[in-house]
Amino acid sequence: MTTALITGITGQDGLYLAELLLANGYDVHGIVRGQNNPKLELVRRVLPDVTVHTGDLTDLSSLMRAMRDSDPDEVYNLGAVSFVAYSWMNAQVTSDVTGLGVLNMLEAVRLHAGDDPAAVRYYQASSSEMFGKVQQVPQSEATLLWPRSPYGVAKVYGHYMTINYRESYGMHASSGILFNHESPRRGPEFVTRKVSQAVARIKLGLQDTLTMGNLDAQRDWGFAGDYVEAMWLMLQQPDGDDYVISTGETHSIRDLLDVAFAHVGIEDWSGLVEQDPRFMRPAEVDQLLGDSSKARSRLGWKPKVSFTELVQMMVDNDLTEQKVLAGL
Ligand code: GDP
Hints:
Residues 5-314 form the NAD(P)-binding domain. Belongs to the NAD(P)-dependent epimerase/dehydratase family. GDP-mannose 4,6-dehydratase subfamily. This is GDP-mannose 4,6-dehydratase. There is one protein chain. This protein is globular. A seven-stranded parallel sheet has the order 3-2-1-4-5-6-11, sandwiched between helices. It has a two-stranded parallel sheet with strand order 7-10. The chain has a two-stranded parallel ribbon with strand order 8-13. By secondary structure, the protein is of the alpha/beta class. Helix 7 runs parallel beside helix 9, helix 7 packs across helix 11 and helix 9 packs across helix 11 (307-326). The protein has eleven helices and 13 strands.
């Protein structure tokens, strides 16, 4: 039986990945942070077969203990402070967890693997936010990185440290440069879920308007369930490598609003959406568009869920959830 250890198992990607690995017959372990973490209950409910270890990406000895106790064949480092807007207000903690946390996890893997550094396969969750002020459209593995937020800078550190450990120690370490990926499990601080929740609430008469930031930014949005398959495929290759994972389609926040409102029968949302500088960022990533041809040819991966299907899935989920919450 193959054993996997996942950091960030309480998050959107961790939950989908754990489900995929369990379905593939894996013994799945996850690291959960903090005392009395409220998300622990979610993991136990959704994933009763996962073994939970207490640990923190800023605490190397806790990671080494989790490595010793789980003795994994594959490690997926998905844990991070992951909300870009928050990273300006908490730049140091973002750097510690999202950046230095990668070094800690790589060290824990290397020390545990001993004489055969490639024996434990390692996946690093890198991000399209590393492209930031994009130097090329579309963005590929070879595009110069130009991060635009403390989050993006921390992810660049983790990306290069992963490459460095692969080159320095011969580790089977892969970096997945994932473009934005969403689902009904996305946190409501992210724009897709914020919109799907608000559109559902407006449709149900529970909310009047929606307050947004920059409507002109463009993202290459895919479905998180499709993207975790790419993570797994990377670790099944003979060698570690870096791969862009994206749909190859870009849409603006306005397009997102169009699709979400249209799904509940509202064609003109102009009177329902307000803008507030509170939701604007000190530096913006204007347009992300990924070139995932390497992953498509080498991993045989491609996304299955389209942008429209993704947004509709999220709105449908929030309609159901909001009805229950409101007792409708
Ligand atoms: P990110 O790409 O990781 O930063 O993902 P987000 O979902 O947080 O943001 C995607 C884009 O939506 C960014 O360009 C934001 O500036 C833009 N955006 C516009 N209004 C909002 C908003 O109200 N909340 C969030 N989170 N993003 C917004």
